[in-house]
# Entry
Amino acid sequence: MTAGIDTGDTAWVMMATALVLLMTPALGLFYAGLVRSKNTLNTFMMCLGAIAVAMVTWALVGYSFAFDAGNGIIGGFGHALLSGVTLEPRAGQTIPHLLFFAFQATFCIITTALVCGAVVERMRFGAFLIFAALWSVLVYAVLAHWVFGGGWLQAGGALDFAGGVPVEIASGFSALAAAIVVGPRRDWGRQAFLPHNAMFVLLGAGLLWFGWFGFNGGSALAANRTGVLAFVNTLLCPACTLAVWFVLDLLRTKRITAIGAATAVIVGCVAITPAAGYLSPGWAMALGVVAALPSYAVIVLRPRWRVDETLDVLAAHGTAGLVGLLFIGLVAQIGWNGVSDGLLYGNADQLLWQALAVAGAVAYAFVVTFALLKALGALMPLRVSPSDEAIGLDVISHGEEAYATGEGALLVLQSESASAA
# Structure
């Protein structure tokens, strides 16, 4: 055994890394079930594409920008091309540095994939891949440095256990910016766009919850007491959100919907992400209750907006992540986390730093994503043509159909014949 390496911790983080990687194809299932059948494959492929581009950019420069010393805003190039990332432990850790790199890579991957939920069914696949590669470096890696890599928020005292800033707020508010720039789907607001496969959505949500035990529990980077706390809180918080969501659905529609239940699981998992290792189990349950309310409200109100943020990334991730971050500042207990108390336990400064983390992350993610897509849009078309959108992006982008009816291929032939004539 290499000096400083704990084999138990290493085994757990290896398992957690695999669990978090599983979350990206699980997200593909979740998203694919929510879109129309003609866009099933394309939606899943956007998530799969995120694995390719984000993994490569993370190895090239993303990891270095996030975890090299650098300055308070961004890391340097000290770990570019995995320089210095070896089998020896990183300072203060009991796992190989190379494993820490891999674990963090899976976070970058799924966060990049999350953003596609705002632009599915109309964004060009190639344009999304280019955007994803740039976004993973310019947005995700920078925000990860702020809270995990020695950046200004971490140095000031902001707490983020497993990614409220770089994962949840970044994806939610980047999704809002992306939806504004790319624009709404054809006929959005004039016809109902219904999920085509609720079972995909439920299966995806279940696999995401399963993977989240690695996401949060693994963020302790050790098989220790903090890891156990995060693991159990990841069980409790989403269960409470799910129970409250049932009540909200019954009060509003007199039915408990499957899509609502799946969404509730995600909202609860997101809310506990930044707080998993900082809250007592009782407060984790309370967070599950509280987080359901604003996220549910955003989903209900979204159809009244003029922004087609297609799969509610803002509600499920941005809003719930924001609530989780602020909740730390209110009820964190040093007796449970060994780090800091919140406002209710005599430490108002913690709430201030949590609020600064929220404000800084919201502003940075929205502005940089908006500017990035505007710049890309000046160089290439971001979305498919109206006729291609009507046909569906499965056939147009991939030459395949999720359900082999042949209708998509026939529509392509008819379109090509009409164009030739």
The CA atoms of residues 245 and 251 lie 10 Å apart. The chain has a mean pLDDT of 95. Residues 386-421 form one domain. The first helix runs from residue 7 to 34.
